[in-house]
Amino acid sequence: MKTHFGFHVNAFLQIKIVSYIPIVHRVIKVHEKENGDIEFLTKGGNIKVDDRGSYKEGENWLEKKDVVGRARGLLPYVGTVTIIKNGYPKFQYAVLAVMGACVLLKRES
């Protein structure tokens, strides 16, 4: 397996694309340009297609600048919580209410 500065197929990288929240996805393709720069394509674990639909408009590959770090372990389905939290504001308020109640109840004990 040929590596390009740690970007190799099946490596799990923490990347920052359009949103401000970094995500961990797997590298599925590595592309070396003629000038030696490395580009790569990623895919989420529970998604059947690659991440190109999530990249910035007109961007088909990620570059080194998009990498925040490397993953050393995995927690499958954790990203689903973030998706639900961001997609359903009422869920976010409910979680905050439960957390607030826990803090208040803990103080009384």
UniProtKB/TrEMBL annotation:
Signal peptide start and end residues: none
InterPro entries named among the record's database cross-references: Peptidase_S26B (IPR001733)
Gene Ontology molecular function: any one: peptidase activity
GO biological process per UniProt: signal peptide processing
Any one GO cellular component localisation term in the record: signal peptidase complex
Transmembrane segments: none
Protein name (database record): Signal peptidase I
Species, as recorded: Balaenoptera physalus (Fin whale)
